[in-house]
Design brief:
Blueprint lengths: L2 E2 L7 H25 L17 H12 L1 H33 L5 H21 L3 H69 L5 H16 L9 E10 L3 E5 L4 E2 L5 E2 L11 H22 L6 E7 L2 E9 L11
Antiparallel strand pairs: 1-4, 2-3, 2-7, 3-5, 6-7
Helix pairs in contact: 1-5, 2-4, 3-4, 5-7, 6-7
């Protein structure tokens, strides 16, 4: 029963490369996830207080003079205003008494209280000193918040730079490991190829492969109208034998070279399979050129791992040039 054979989607070198690519990507994603956690929250800034306007200051000056009226309004409505207005008469009377030379203590006390009230009201309603002081504190607090925020941003920037450097170093490391492992694989393939070329015991494999190659060529169109005979010959060395694959992608198990039946040890490694396949391509091409000695015979070799394609082309001995009708 025929079994389907074809090149694998990925070569051994691709698999090696993908292994280190996956290793690098996993490390990179971890670093990027770490970078996503590096965030700084913009601090909430307190708004500065607004000072008194020029018009407000003018009204404040007047209000500082009649502060008892304002105090009365705040405490007792209309009645408080009336009381406050009456209170405003006391400092006036006190001034009158002072101008008459009356310097009794009570008069001075009343006047002093009034003056103190004027000063306090002035500071509250007219002067922006307290507002400016409060704003200086607010601005200082805001500046401190921004300083800490900028320090945090700089720290985040440094950590991201360090993370990106680790990503770059991981890329260099995995690239070096990839190249080293592929180089080792290629070196092993070449070493096994040379060992196979130096082993005359593989002659039966060569004979079988040449036989199958010639059979493939004989099945190609070779009529008088065909200038060149062309054929694609495919074979694949596995750990248990050699399969010969038709253009359809199928092979006949009955035609395979089975190591166990032919009394060869099975292979153990993929490098051994490719090394043997490469050696066979060298020996088979040489034999086929002996079988088809024409200078027009060419055989191009390509492969993916131990799956080899030998493209054969030679002049067709049966070809006849077209004749003129007239």
């Amino acid at each position: 029963m025929a079994g389907k054979k074809k090149m694998s989607d990925l070569s051994m070198r691709d698999k090696i490369s993908n292994k280190y690519t996956a290793m690098y990507e996993a490390s990179k994603q971890r670093e990027l996830a770490y970078q996503e956690t590096l965030k700084a929250e913009m601090p909430q800034m307190k708004q500065l207080l607004e000072g008194h306007s020029k018009a407000g200051q003018a009204l404040g000056i007047f209000g500082s003079i009649i502060w008892p009226v304002l105090a009365g309004a705040g405490m007792g409505g209309i009645i408080g205003v009336i009381i406050g207005a009456l209170v405003c008469a006391f400092p006036v009377g006190a001034v009158v008494e002072l101008t008459k030379g009356n310097t009794e203590t009570s008069v001075l006390v009343v006047l002093a209280i009034y003056i103190i009230g004027v000063v306090i009201t002035f500071l509250l309603m007219v002067s922006n000193a307290s507002t400016k002081k409060a704003n200086r504190k607010i601005q200082h607090d805001n500046d401190e918040k921004m300083r800490h925020y900028n320090e945090e941003l700089q720290d985040i920037s440094n950590k991201k730079a360090q993370s990106n450097q680790r990503i770059a170093q991981e890329k260099e490391r995995t690239d070096a490991l990839r190249k080293a492992e592929i180089a080792r694989y290629d070196a092993d393939v070449d070493a096994f190829c040379q060992q196979a070329l130096g082993n005359s015991g593989i002659a039966p494999m060569v004979e079988k492969t040449v036989e199958m190659f010639k059979r493939m060529v004989s099945h190609q169109e070779s009529g008088t109208d065909v200038k060149y005979v062309e054929a694609d010959f495919n074979y694949e060395v596995s750990k248990t034998g050699i399969a010969y694959i038709y253009g359809s992608g199928y092979s006949n198990p009955e035609s395979e070279f089975n190591f166990q039946k032919e009394r060869f040890h099975d292979l153990n490694r993929d490098e051994e399979c490719e090394g043997l396949a490469k050696a066979l391509s060298v020996l088979v091409v040489a034999r086929m050129k002996e079988e088809y000695p024409s200078d027009l015979t060419t055989i191009k070799v390509s492969n993916q791992d131990a799956y080899f394609n030998l493209y054969f082309k030679t002049a067709n001995e049966n070809f006849e040039a077209a004749r003129d009708i007239f």
